[in-house]
Amino acid sequence: QILSSIGGGAASKHLVEAQRASLVAGVIGATAIKTREVLKFAKGGVLFVDEAYRLAPPGSEKDYGREAVDELMSEMERGDPVMIFAGYNDDTMKEFMRLNPGIFRRVQRVFEFTRFSAEELAQITITKAESKRFSVGGALEALGVPELAAIYMRHTSEAQRANMNGGMVDSVLRAAKRHLDRRMGVESTLEELSTYRAEDFVKACADLPKAELLETPA
């Protein structure tokens, strides 16, 4: 829906995801070449720069991230590829926007996403699990959105959900897969091997960064 609102057929174009490591090299001049290669691959599509703020780390006056931004800006005027810069709604993205005075006027739209509720996190979890051909709960256990949301409310803190937001889902699924694997034995069936149980998610929540290490955003 967001890509459709951008226009230009963005929703139907191929998506190329990039991060700092995809764009920035460690020697002078190499970053420009590396960034141009990514831009070339993304031509005719959408370039999604995740964690764009990492191109502007603290004390970045001599950082090669600036070189990558300069290359990206050279293509932004042409509108191909469509570029999306993703990051947190805080000072880190403000620093990114200050890297070059031209970024602000070239970025045409800003989308701010609210924090996901426990129910939304549960729905995303189930959708992602099923996209990988895993089941949640299976025939022996009722584990839908309400039940999984209740697990999140009971076994994660507001600070964890607020700070990790949608990223919490990936962390939970990785940990849940480890706990699922530990439950399996040589006689486990294919269905058992691909079915998450409530206990897997409870243990996965316990593996998340502890609340005292996180600060609830204002």
Written overview of the protein:
The chain has 218 residues and is mostly helical. It has helices at 2-6, 20-23, 30-42, 65-76, 91-97, 101-106, 118-131, 145-155, 158-164, 167-183, 190-193, 198-206; strands at residues 15-18, 46-49, 82-85, 135-136, 195-196. The strands form 2 sheets. Strands 1-2-3 form a 3-stranded parallel beta sheet. Strands 4-5 form a two-stranded parallel sheet. The longest helix is centred in the last third of the chain and has 17 residues, at 167-183. The two termini are 28 Å apart.
Query: What is the helix content?
Result: 40-55%
Q: Which geometry do the CA atoms define?
A: elongated
Number of helices, where a helix is a run of at least 4 consecutive DSSP H or I residues: 12
Strand content: 5-15%
Strands of the widest sheet, in order across it, are 1-2-3
Report the C-alpha radius of gyration, rounded.
21 Å
Write down how many β-strands occur, each being a DSSP E stretch of 2 or more residues.
5
| First-residue to last-residue Cα separation | 28 Å
Main structural class: mainly alpha
Give the helices and strands as they follow along the chain. Answer: HEHHEHEHHHEHHHHEH
Rounded average pLDDT:
85
As residue ranges, the low-confidence spans are none
Largest sheet: 3 strands, parallel
Concise structural overview:
This protein is mostly helical. The chain has helices at residues 2-6, 20-23, 30-42, 65-76, 91-97, 101-106, 118-131, 145-155, 158-164, 167-183, 190-193, 198-206; strands at residues 15-18, 46-49, 82-85, 135-136, 195-196. It contains 12 helices and 5 strands.
